[in-house]
Design brief:
The complex is a heterodimer of chains A (189) and B (360). With 189 residues, chain A is an alpha/beta fold. Chain A has a single domain, classed as Rossmann fold, CATH 3.40.50. Chain A contains seven helices and six strands. Chain A has a five-stranded parallel β-sheet, with helices on both faces. In chain A, helix 3 links the parallel strand 4 and strand 5. Chain A is globular. The two termini of chain A are 29 Å apart. Chain B folds into two domains: 188 residues, no CATH class; 128 residues, no CATH class. Chain B has a four-stranded mixed β-sheet with strand order 5-4-6-13, covered by helices on one side. The relative contact order of chain B is 0.16. About 1% of the residues of chain B have low confidence. Classes of the chains: A alpha/beta (189), B alpha+beta (360). The interface between A and B is large, with 35 and 54 residues. Strand 1 of chain A pairs antiparallel with strand 1 of chain B, so a sheet runs across the interface.
């Protein structure tokens, strides 16, 4: 008995390689990408403070998406790419809900499109969500799970939650060499 | 044409196989065999490979044949195909924001409203139970559109459908407007369609409140509409967000009659609700996430009260059940659309309706 499939076929995104990582964050111009969720700005602020302590010669440049859904517009996407072309690495936040995790993956993908290595910061409950959205966008984008509570805007609390382990992990994702899958070009999903 | 090859032709075996592949909503399904899908396609004049729209993150195409397969699985009759095709066009319309209410942690439902002559064709034109009860077209159509969207976009629960609480209305919120006893024009006419046309409307709400007005004055009914719209049901652009959020009121025939007899128009009701939706400023933020939601009101509000709903365009009205009671419903907030699409019927529609009248 033949069954007619109810699902879509044949539109899987071709996978592109990730941008090669940097060897160190020393002296780098670091991009901080705020995807418009409430917790993004305090989280990235705490990350910036920690990285500034570790790398006094590093400089920082922010990109704020005013509202989460703005990233759907072509103009906003072009603007993100333009911004990302002028930073050495991009750190994006935050994936702590269904929509924002999807849109964070879109943002990190745009950073990689600009030729800049990127990493997304996500709530640990959204790991599979980020992974599947990243592959759907066309790259196995890197990420670091953080313990920052969903929707929190309490900077002092976020500072406590952004531990040295979290910052170590962010550095790791930005400096660890690409593996075969991440380097591969035109690999079918 | 892709095929699966289950071992047996039983509903239980096929349901289990498709469920394991993530292709069902968990309930048993009718196996979408070549023969059944062929019969379903009697409900359309379009070719099997016609792409009805592109859905989801990567604009996955959905063909007429795919839709028919989902329709068979959900238990639809061929007469549902025109409605389903229009529903897919609504889901594919970017202004429906269907991606967001499919993936959001909020847990949202696909809300459908049916209007026009198609209501007569299915015998759901009037009477009680506009949300369907056991009406096959209501239950199966909403289910078919839900699983068709999921199977096309591959937005699976817990992977990309991140609704924390999920939503029991997700694939079952289907409303047929009670046009026959309404004193006002139907929903689709208000939104630019001809009265003779049939339409389906898509929204993306997360909450459903039923309330009994018990009122004999228009003021009491209007007050009830406002009181039964909690702050958590309101938000969006009018409160500093980045997209519209609308509220849908479904009013009983008796309450509609009371409002109309008082000389109120549909537009007048919407204006009254928005102009009188004041709540204490301390409660305003409960329904929103944005810090700047109250910026427009700073220095301007003496009574420490602000309107929840900033304009009549955020209020939608549909005629509900007949007059056995004064039960009304508030549904919202819709974080998408609502978008309305015209239903296009096949050439043999009349004979098809007659043939399936008993089953439908």
């Amino acid at each position: 008995m033949g069954l007619i499939t109810p699902s879509s076929t044949g539109n899987d995104a071709e996978q592109k390689p990730l941008v090669p990582r940097v060897t160190s964050l020393e002296g780098k111009h670091i991009g901080l990408y705020d995807n418009g969720k409430p917790a993004a700005e305090p989280l990235l602020t705490a990350v910036q403070e920690k990285l500034a302590q570790r790398y006094p010669d590093a400089t920082f440049e922010w990109y704020h998406v005013e509202h989460l859904n703005q990233i759907k517009s072509d103009d906003e996407q072009e603007s993100v790419v333009d911004w990302a072309e002028n930073v050495d690495i991009g750190i994006g936040a935050i994936g702590d809900c269904g929509s924002c995790t999807k849109f964070l993956a879109w943002g990190i993908e745009l950073i990689e499109d600009a030729g800049t290595p990127g990493v997304g910061l996500i709530d640990e409950g959204f790991e599979l969500d980020y992974q599947s959205n990243a592959v759907e966008r066309g790259r196995p984008l890197r990420y670091k799970k953080t313990p920052v509570r969903c929707e929190t805007t309490d900077l002092d609390r976020v500072r406590e939650e952004v531990s040295n382990e979290v910052v170590d992990g962010i550095e790791e994702e930005l400096t660890r060499s690409l593996n075969d899958k991440e380097r591969a070009e035109q690999v079918a999903q | 044409m892709a095929h699966h090859q289950p071992r047996e032709d039983s509903i239980s075996t096929v349901s289990r196989s498709l469920y394991r592949q993530g292709l069902t909503d968990g309930l048993p399904v009718i196996p979408p065999t070549d023969e059944r899908v062929g019969k379903m396609l009697r409900g359309t004049d379009k070719p099997r490979d016609h792409v009805l729209g592109r859905l989801g993150n990567d604009d996955s195409p959905i063909t007429v044949e795919q839709l028919a397969s989902n329709a068979v699985m959900a238990g639809c009759l061929p007469t549902s195909m025109p409605i389903l095709e229009a529903g897919i066009r609504a889901l594919a319309d970017p202004s429906s924001n269907s991606i967001q209410f499919s993936v959001s942690t909020g847990g949202w439902a696909y809300q459908w409203v049916l209007n026009g002559s198609v209501l007569d064709d299915f015998g759901v034109a009037a009477g009680s139970g506009p949300f369907g009860r056991n009406t096959r077209v209501s239950r199966a159509t909403a289910r078919a559109l839900g699983i068709a969207y999921r199977n096309t976009t591959k937005i699976y629960p817990g992977e990309k459908d991140m609704g924390v609480m999920a939503n029991p209305l997700k694939f079952s919120l289907f409303l047929a407007e009670n046009e026959t006893t309404s004193p006002w024009e139907p929903y689709h006419v208000t939104h630019g369609f001809d009265e003779g046309e049939s339409t389906i409307t898509l929204g993306g709400p997360n909450s459903f409140i039923q309330w009994e007005s018990g009122a004999d004055s228009p003021e009491a009914i209007l007050g009830g509409m406002i009181e039964n719209t909690p702050p958590s049901m309101v938000g969006g652009e009018q409160q500093g967000g980045d997209f519209d959020q609308t509220i849908l009121h479904v009013l009983s025939s008796e309450d509609l009659e009371t409002l109309a007899e008082a000389g109120l128009t549909k537009r007048g009701v919407k204006e009254y609700v928005s102009e009188n939706s004041y709540i204490p400023i301390e409660e305003f933020q409960k329904g929103v996430l944005w810090d700047d939601a109250l910026d427009d009101y700073h220095g301007k509000v003496d009574s420490r009260q602000v309107p929840q709903i900033s304009g009549p365009e955020y209020v939608k009205l549909v005629a509900g059940g007949r007059s056995e009671s004064q039960s009304n419903v508030v549904i919202g907030p819709s974080i998408g659309g609502p978008v309305t699409k015209k239903i296009e019927f096949p050439d043999e529609w009349g004979s098809l309706v007659t043939e399936y009248a008993v089953e439908g």
